[in-house]
Amino acid sequence: MKPASHHTPDYATLGLLQEGVWVSDSSDRFVFVNAAMAKIAGLSPELLTGQELRSFPEETLKHFLDYFNKAKESLQPCEYECPVVTPSGTATWQGGWLRPLVEDGRYAGMICTVRDITQSHSDKCSLIDHRNRLEAEA
């Protein structure tokens, strides 16, 4: 599969989205963070912008980096769903898409969408537990 071509993100439009979005440059430094992403992270866009992804604590990145590295190395979009402890210290489950930005066949940054899926993940686990108990009783 051919890598997606590079398009300059429309930050004004990304800022209007209800879903969290961040954009990084080729050094994995955040160049854009929308308000929805800042709310999920528990920090202001100003505090997040300029930070390097790998500067966040291990508990924040532990599961997410595998997905990030897969997208970055393959230059292909990658869907993710994993536990994340936000920079403000909240334990969450997050999901979304990582879309590499590609320029002249090389990695030029990443666009990431972020949804807090903590409640739906909890509901899914509860349903699985309930089903397992019912099957054990049968």
Top keywords for this entry?
single chain, 138 residues, 5-stranded antiparallel sheet, 6 helices
Element layout with pairings:
Layout: H1 11-16, E1 20-24, E2 30-33, H2 35-41, H3 45-48, H4 58-61, H5 64-74, E3 78-85, E4 91-103, E5 106-116, H6 118-137
Antiparallel strand pairs: 1-2, 1-5, 3-4, 4-5
Notes on the protein architecture:
The chain is an alpha+beta fold. 38% of the residues lie in helices and 30% in strands. The protein contains six helices and five strands, in the order αββααααβββα. The chain has helices at residues 11-16, 35-41, 45-48, 58-61, 64-74, 118-137, and strands spanning 20-24, 30-33, 78-85, 91-103, 106-116. A five-stranded antiparallel β-sheet has the order 2-1-5-4-3, sandwiched between helices. A hairpin with a 2-residue loop joins strand 4 (91-103) and strand 5 (106-116). The longest helix has 20 residues, at 118-137. The radius of gyration is 17 Å and the shape is globular. The N and C termini lie far apart (48 Å). The model has no long low-confidence stretch (mean pLDDT 85).
Strand content: 25-35%
Percentage of helical residues?
Answer: 25-40%
Mass-distribution shape: globular
Average residue pLDDT? 85
Number of helices: 6
| Major β-sheet strand ordering | 2-1-5-4-3
Topology as a string of helices (H) and strands (E)? HEEHHHHEEEH
Tell me the total number of β-strands. 5
Structural class: alpha+beta
Distance between the termini: 48 Å
Contiguous runs where pLDDT drops below 50 for at least 5 residues: none
Q: What is the CA-atom radius of gyration, in angstroms?
A: 17 Å
